[in-house]
Structure formats: structure tokens, C-alpha cells
Amino acid sequence: MDNVSASGIKALVFDVFGTVVDWRSGVAREVAAFIASAQVTVDPFEFADAWRREYAPAMAEVRAGNRGFVRLDVLHRENLEKALMGFGIDPQSIPAASLDELNLAWHKLDPWPDAVPGLSRLKERFIIAPLSNGNIRLMLDIAKRAGIPWDAILGAEVVRMYKPAPSVYLDTAELLAIEPAELCMVAAHNDDLKAAKACGLKTAFVSRPREHGGAQTKDLFAEGQWDFVASSFIELADMMLGVGQSKRQ
Fold first, then answer.
1. Cβ-based burial of 227 (10 A; exposed 0-12, middle 13-18, buried ≥19)
2. Phi–psi pair at 28, nearest 5 degrees
3. What is the CATH number of domain 11-20+112-240?
4. Does the pLDDT value for residue 247 go beyond 50?
5. Are 2 and 248 in contact (CB under 8 A)?
6. In CATH, what class is 24-107?
7. Phi–psi pair at 88, nearest 5 degrees
8. Does the pLDDT at position 3 exceed 70?
9. What is the pTM of this model?
10. Intrachain domains 11-20+112-240 and 24-107 with the same fold
């Protein structure tokens, strides 16, 4: 491993779903409560996975220009109905208010145990903000509930486009009044980092091997020449703040 320095980096932006917060457990918890009240029979984790699978195709429609930009809360609500139909449940048989409440599951996610302590340390030196496909209110609700110490809320709704479109990364650097090379993208997803690197950003991979549960097969390890590779936000803070030896994948 070669030594790598955080010198020149002025801001860190973070993927949120899977990297900062455990979306799967949080959504499954809310689905379990919904099941009890709606008297439907589905496995909460299987439903959470099915709901999440609709995420990428829905955003792809926006990136392709097939529909105008809508915030992720809207896509999640539409995808909820698709997921229900996939389990043979007619969404029309459930009160809309109940579905609207379940859709807020994405606003009630818990951070990984190392996330807030690591972010708090990184905040001492760098600007830190989400660069998520989640909308502003969604990011605010997660942060307020979990005590995530963001300096700003950035991401898809701010730039009106979804990752991994280049404008999301480049426009974010411009909004912060810094060069792309002064901005570091932190994510547990190699495809997010690949897109960021192609735009000239620095990159940091933080592994989350249980994002998709015990049978996860994707993003188990760094698959690119990222600037930093860490097992937690604590280790990333050590690297970027000069504690111990930095690493390059």
C-alpha cells in the first residue's frame, strides 16, 4: 500500500443509503409494523429488498429524460405500490394514508454504529454533506433522528438529477466553490465511486458487507483504484486526519 494524503481535500460528500445508514433493517422494521396493522403476509426483509430493487429503474427514467425530475419520496411511493403488486397485494385495498405512512420508513433509518462518531471527527477538518439520491426533507429527517452532523444538505434534489449522472458530482463541487479534485466522494458502492472519479473527484470506499444482509455478493471490497479504502468511518477518519498509516487500494 502506498501512502496517500488528504492534503488538498476541502470537503467530503457521502452516499447515504447503505454507506451512512442501514436502510434494509430500518425499512424492514417499519414494514413489520405495517404488516401487523394491515393484516397482510410478507416477509419484512424480502419486502424491503423488493422495494429497493425498484429504486434504480425509477431513477433511470429520470436520467434518460423520459420524465422530469421528481424527488425520491415520490419515486419511493410509486415503487411501494409496485412492490406490493409483486407480492400479489392490491395497493387499492390499503388506505392511501397507510401507504403514505409506510413510505416514511425511508425517513427513519438508523446509522451504522461507526457513522456518527466518524463523521463528527471528519467534520473537525472538512466540510461534510450527503451526496445522496434522497431528497432534502428525507436527508434532514434521517439526520435529525440519528444525530448526523452534516454541514449542509446536498444531493439529487439540489442539482435536479440522480447519480451517477456527471452533473450530480460536478455541480456539487461548483456549489461548494471548490474544484472537483478538492472534493472526496465517500461510498460503499464501487459504481458511485467510479462515476465520481471520472468527474475528477477524490474517492473513498468504506465497506458495508451487510448492507444487503448475510447473502450480500456485491460491493464486498474495493474494486477500483480509490484514494482511500477503509472498513469504517472511524478508520477513514484516522486516515484522513493523519492518525496511523493511510492506505491506497
1. buried
2. -60, -35
3. 3.40.50.1000
4. no
5. yes
6. mainly alpha
7. 75, 20
8. no
9. 0.93
10. no
